Amino acid sequence: MSLSFFHIHNYNNTVIAYCRVNDINQYYALKWHLNQPIDYRLYLLYFFQDSEGNMKQIDQCANENITLIQCFMNCEPFFYLHLLRHNYFYKKGRRDILENPNILLEIYNKINVDNGLPKFEWNINNNKQDIDFSYISKKISELDIDPLLASTKIEKMSYYCERIDHINDLLITNIPDIESIICFKEFMELYAIKPNNRLFSIFKSTDLVLENVYYINKCWFDGNRHPLHNVIFNSDIEYGVFEKTDNAWNHHVSDITNYPIHQSIDEEIVYLDYIYGYYNFGEFWDCIRRLLAESKKPLPLFHVSNSRVTNIEYYFKKLGFNYPTKYQTQEGNNKLYYFNKIHVSIINGGCRGYYDKYIAYQFNRVFNPNSISETKSYNIYLARGPYGRSLLNESNIVNTLKAKYGFVIIDGSESLETIMQHFTNANIILGVHGSLMKNTIWCKKNPVFIELCPNTRHGCFQDNAMCCNFTTFFFICDCNEKEEVVLGDEKENALYGLLDILV
Q1: Which of 106, 121, 138, 355 has the most CB within a 10 Å radius?
Q2: Please, what's the b/e burial string for 397-427 (b: 16 or more CB within 10 A of its CB; e: otherwise)?
Q3: How far is residue 77's CA from residue 142's CA, in Å, rounded to a whole number?
Q4: Are residue 464 and residue 375 in the same domain, yes or no?
């Protein structure tokens, strides 16, 4: 039996995880994990009980970055039960769906297009696994529950849900400054935690300091104007691409011999030249993620000059940065800059659309003042408007969504306050693949996420929702040459059938 790790916290050089060790083989497997070199803080809560019921302790590691914290109660049922409690159908009391997920799989198969392309196979398989909610119930029933509780039924396990305070006490007692990075009780009210077999998966920020360097079109050069190939760039999925000559924007510069200096900047600043002019939500938030972890505040920013981001100053003000500054550039403008000293935030652990529940938690903590409403929830349809890749026959479908299912239409023209308010209390989110879906980062009610994805696109927004453990339906759909999703009568009716169950 392999080890399962529950990541309680994973953000900016600090990981908090829990695991249960069942036998001596798992003990040695864990020791092997802990002997791997790491350069960030790891707090591992563990429960180790031998076959005779004796509590066992694990020796502290030689690596000073690892702290082991012994638990005297198995917390696995707690995590699995909360995973179930965050499930939409469990919250709605739809045990019929939990016990017979084939009802949903039938709808899924009516709408989804199996086009045979290998790049979509993983999306289809993952989606079917995500719909099969019954595995959570099965997992709970397999756990070694205290016999004094008399039953392994879900209804009899509320005891474990109350152990939030027990785990919270463990964290506060044993982890310095834990309250400054996460309120665990609040976190578990917003998100559930799935098990995985990886312990060392980390969102990690590194402050790369460059001195006496030149810069043009995201390409760096040393003081002698030679290309600067810093290996740390390659660990960042965004910046690493500009080490190559075939990057997507095709503005790579390899020789600056004949380029005059457009601007020489002598004071210490922070780098923020990043593509967020075109997308109101996606790429800009990936950019802000860097500043969220940036410690060099409030140094001036070097940033792009044009942006369509709604109320962009709001984000910088919340982070303590001044915006705009006098140090500005434009994407691919072929202008050469000289920096005396500049800080570049390097992110390990993925970027460009693959935020997880820990990033969403940090964003809500810093930027979103809206609280969960006990009386108001929204069913949201995300309209693409004039930007293309919309739903064919959208007006007729939208009329049905509004009249029969009480949907509110969001198209991105709304104020930031309205966007946050609606997504915070979203119940159902439905739309065609597009950047508006990035607003799921504001969700606090574990909504149902339904994406109609043209078969020319990929499942990045589905990944976002699944990382946050939202109940997710990802449908690969036929589309025309404009990437407009084509449902047809049968698929449209199947979609309404799904909404009949959800609403």
Answers
A1: 355
A2: beeebeeebebeebebeeebeebbbbbbbbb
A3: 10
A4: yes
Is residue 471, in this structure, part of any structural domain at all? yes
Q: Which residue has the higher pLDDT, 311 or 448?
A: 448
Stretch (H or E) spanning 212: strand 204-216
Instruction: Return mean pLDDT, the chain.
Output: 82
CA angle 317, 323, 324 (to 5 degrees): 160
In Å, how far are 43, 144, 399, 454 from 386, measured between CA atoms? 49, 55, 18, 17
Helix/strand/coil (H, E, C) string of 470-487?
CEEEEEEEEECCCCCEEC
Helices (H) and strands (E) in the chain, counts: 19, 18
Distance CA 240, CA 256 (A): 20
C-alpha to C-alpha distance for 302 and 319, rounded to whole angstroms: 16
* Domain membership flag for residue 385: yes
Q: What is the pLDDT of residues 410-457, one digit of tens each?
A: 988 888 899 999 999 999 999 999 888 989 999 999 899 999 988 888
Q: Which residues contact 176 (CB under 8 A, 6 or more apart)?
A: none
| Dihedral pair phi/psi, residue 101, rounded to 5° | -65, -10
3-state helix, strand, coil in the chain (%, to 5): 40, 20, 40
Give the residue numbers spanning the domain of 319.
204-348
Higher-pLDDT residue of 369 and 90 is: 369
C-alpha separations of 470 from 55, 382, 423, 447, 448 in Å: 36, 17, 13, 6, 6
Nearest to 70 by CA among 26, 24, 20: 20
What are the two backbone dihedrals, phi and then psi, of residue 496, each rounded to the nearest 5 degrees? -65, -35
CATH of the domain at 119: 3.40.50
With a threshold of 0.70, does the pTM exceed it? yes
Give the residue among 501, 221, 191, 470 at the shortest CA–CA distance from 336.
221
Q: Is residue 357 part of a domain?
A: no
CA-wise closest residue to 455 among 473, 475, 477? 477
For residue range 167-192, list pLDDT tens digits in order. 788 888 888 888 888 888 888 888 88
Number of C-beta neighbours around residue 99 at 10 A: 13
Residue at token pair 């917003």: 190
- Is-contact 492 499, C-beta < 8 A? no
Q: What are the φ and ψ backbone dihedral angles of 321, each rounded to 5 degrees?
A: -100, 150
